[in-house]
Amino acid sequence: MYRPDEIDRAIVDARVAEFRDQVARRLSGELDEDHFKPLRLKNGLYLQLHAYMLRVAIPYGVLSAEQLRMLADVARRYDRGYGHFTTRQNIQFNWVKLEEAPDLLADLARVGLHAIQTSGNCVRNITSDPYAGAAADEVVDPRPWAELLRQWSTLHPEFSYLPRKFKIAITGAPVDRAAIRFHDIGLELRRLEGRLGLKVYVGGGMGRTPMLGACIRDFLPAEEFLSYCEAILRVYNRHGRRDNIHKARIKILVQALGAEQFAAEVEREHAHLKGQGIDAPWGEVERIAAHFTDPPFTLGLPDDFRVDALDPGLERWVARQVMRHRVPGYRIVNVSLKPPGGIPGDASAEQMEAIAELADAYSFGEVRVTHAQNLVLPHVRAIDIPAVYRALMQVGLAEANLDLASDIICCPGLDYCTLANARSIPVAQALADRLRPIEAELGELKIKVSGCINACGHHHAGHIGILGVDRKGTENYQLLLGGSGAEDASLAQILGPGFTAEGVVEAVARVVDVYRRERAAGERFLDTYRRLGPAPFREAVYG
Amino acid sequence: MKLLTGNRVRTGDVVWWAGDRWSTRLAEAVGLEPAEGERLLAEQAAHEQVNDLALVDAEPRPGGGWRPVHIRERIRAYGPTVRPDLAREGENWR
After folding, report:
1. pLDDT higher than threshold 80 for residue B31
2. Which of A47, A473, A475 is opposite residue B7, by nearest beta carbon?
3. pLDDT of residue A312
4. What CATH architecture applies to the domain A410-542?
C-alpha cells in the first residue's frame, strides 16, 4: 500500500502547525467565528448538534493496521470511545473538542492521516473499490490511479474554491463497488486491445437533485487522464453556478448544457491542456504503482478450507462474507459493522484494535473501508478463515449479513447532524430488527436511509430507500423503491405519501411481502421491482 | 417562551442561557420573552464564546423547567437518542 513520502509528511505537518496557530487565535479571541469557520472546515472540523465533529480522510478506503490502531487511539483519547465509518469511506469522530483538535491532528499525522479536503468546495477524498488489488474480477488495480488523483488534487490551487464540493470515484472492475455513477466524476479503468484506458462518467450525484453520471468518454487513454480530469474541473469551474448553492454541483451544469455539449467543452479544453505537462510522466505512474505491488502471497496454498458441519454459524458467515480472491488460496473477508442493535458504521476503539490485530495476523496489515460502511480484510489465506471468524465473534463483528436487509447504509441523521430533519439510525435499527429473521430468504436487498435531502445515506441508490423529512415539526419518512448504486445503476422513485417512523417500517414489510409473493426464480428484490413496476408495491402499501 | 442556546466555542458543548451564565443543563435554562431573548443573543454573539446562537421555542414542563418544542433541540439537550449511555443525566428527549 502507499506509504507517505517526505512531501506528503511535510504538507500534513505544515497544515497541523498552521491549524494549531489558527485555533490558538480563535481561542484567544483574535479570530472571530466568521473568519475561523472556513479555516476549521478546511481541516474537516464541523460543528454538529452536540459537539465538533472531525472527518478524517481515508484515501480510497485503504488503511494500514497501524493507522486503524491510531484511529482507535483517537477514539479513546479525544472522543467517547468510538468512530463512525461513512458512506465516502472516511471516518468521523463525533465528540471532538476544539482545544484538543490540533493535538488530535498531530497524532493522526504521525501515521500519515489527516482531514484535509474532507470539507469545503474542493475535490474531496477519492473513493474506490474496497476490493482493489484483491478482487477476482478486477481488470485493473485502481489504487495507483486513485493515488495519482489524490496527489494531483491535494491543495490544487485552481480547484480550492470550486462552485461546490467535488467527488471522484474510480474502479477497475466490471462490478461497481464504488457507486461511480453517483459521483461528479466516475472512472472505470479498462483494457481495450491491450491498451489501458478509462470510461469517464460525469455529473452523477445524490442530494436534492439526484442524477446518474453521463458517459462522456468511452475510452480515455490512461496517460491522459489527469489532463482530462483537469479539463472537466476547468469547464465546471468556469461555467458552474455560484449564484445558487442548490444548483452549483456539476450535475446541474451537465444537465443544463446536455452531456454532449458538456463533453464538447471538455474536449476543447483538453485539447488545449494535454500538451502542457499536466499528465504524470510514465515513470511517475510506475513509481506510484510500485507502492501497490502484491504483498508476499504464498503461492500453491490450498484453495479451500474445512468448515465444521457442526458450526452452521461459520458456514453462514463464509457463504455471506467471504469472497473469492484473484490469488488462489486467498480470500477477501468482509467485516460487518451492522450487528444487531448496533449503529450502522460505528466501531468501538476495541473493535478497531481487534480488526487491526487481525489485519496484522492474517491480511498483511491491510484493511479497507467500504462505502456501505463495513470493513474488509483484503488478503486472508483460505485456511485461516475459521480463525478469523472466531476472532470476529469475540468482538461482536461476525454478523453474516453482507448486502442483506440488515446491512443498511445509514447517515448519522438527527441524532448527530445539524443538517438532518429526522432521525435515521432508529429507523435503520427497527428495519433491521424487523427483517433480520427473514433476510437470508430475501437475498440481496440494499436498504439505505438518509435523515435529510442531502442523501448521505444514499437513499436514491437503495433498492429500498428512506428519506427523513420534517413535516410541520415532526419526523416523517418517504419511501423510495428501485435504486441501485452498482453497475446496474438507477435512481429510486418515491412510492407515495410519507409515514411516521413506525409506519415506514410497516410499509417496508408490506413491500417485502409483495416481493416474496411475486418474485420469479433467481430474482433479487430489485429485479422483481423492475419487472413489475411500482403499482403492486404501491397497492400493498397504500391500497 | 424562548430559550437561548448554542455550542461553547472551546469544547463544542451544548449550552443554555441560565440567567447569568451558560449551563450545559437544560434544567437550568431560563425562559425568555422574545425581545429579551433577541437582546441577549446580540449581546452574547459579541462575546464570541458560544457558536451557533439561537433562540428556540419552549413550553413549560410539568414540575418545572422548560421543554424545547422541536425534537432537534430536545436531542441537543439529551444527546443521541440511540446512545442512552452517553445521555446527559436527568434529560429526556421525548
Report:
1. yes
2. A47
3. 85
4. 2-Layer Sandwich (3.30)
A308 has pLDDT over 70: no
Q: Domain A6-109 adopts which CATH fold?
A: Sulfite Reductase Hemoprotein; domain 2 (3.90.480)
Q: To which residue does cell 478482487 refer? A: A135
* Local confidence band at A309 (pLDDT 50, 70, 90 cut-offs): low
pLDDT at position A535 is 98
pLDDT tens digits along A236-259? 999 999 999 999 999 999 999 999
Per the structure block, which three cell numbers stand in for B64?
Answer: 418545572
Question: Given a cut of 80, is residue A307 above it in pLDDT?
Answer: no
Establish if B91 belongs to a structural domain: no
Could you tell me which of A286, A466, A281, A446 has the C-alpha nearest to residue A373?
A: A446
Residue keyed to cell 410519507: A498
In this predicted complex, what is the ipTM?
0.97
Contact A440, A195 (CB under 8 A): no
| B48 lies within 8 A of chain A by CB | yes
DSSP A492-520: -EE-SS-B-HHHHHHHHHHHHHHHHHHPP
What is the span of the domain harbouring residue B31? Answer: 2-86
Considering only residues 19 to 38 of chain B, which have any Cβ-Cβ distance to chain A shorter than 8 Å?
A: none
Contact A29 B86 (CB under 8 A): no
Contact list in A for residue B70 (CB cut-off 8 A) is 473
Task: From A22, A246, A457, A36, select the one nearest B52 (Cα to Cα).
Answer: A36
Residues in chain A with CB shorter than 8 Å from the CB of B72 are 49, 414
A1-40 residue pLDDT tens: 899 999 999 999 999 999 999 999 999 999 999 999 999 9
Closest CA to A182 of A480, A484, A448, A466: A484
Q: How many domains does chain B have?
A: 1
Chain B, 61 to 80: residues with Cβ < 8 Å from chain A are 69-72, 75-76, 79-80
CB contact under 8 A, B11 and A99: yes
A residues 232..261 contacting B (CB < 8 A): none
Q: Which residues contact A169 (CB under 8 A, 6 or more apart)?
A: A126, A127, A128, A178, A179, A180, A182, A183, A185, A186, A187
Strands of A241-339, DSSP E: 322-324, 330-335
Contact A423 B70 (CB under 8 A): no
Which 3 state secondary structure label does DSSP give B15?
Answer: strand
Interchain contact, B75 vs A425, CB within 8 Å: no
Residue B12 to residue A473, Cβ atoms within 8 A: no
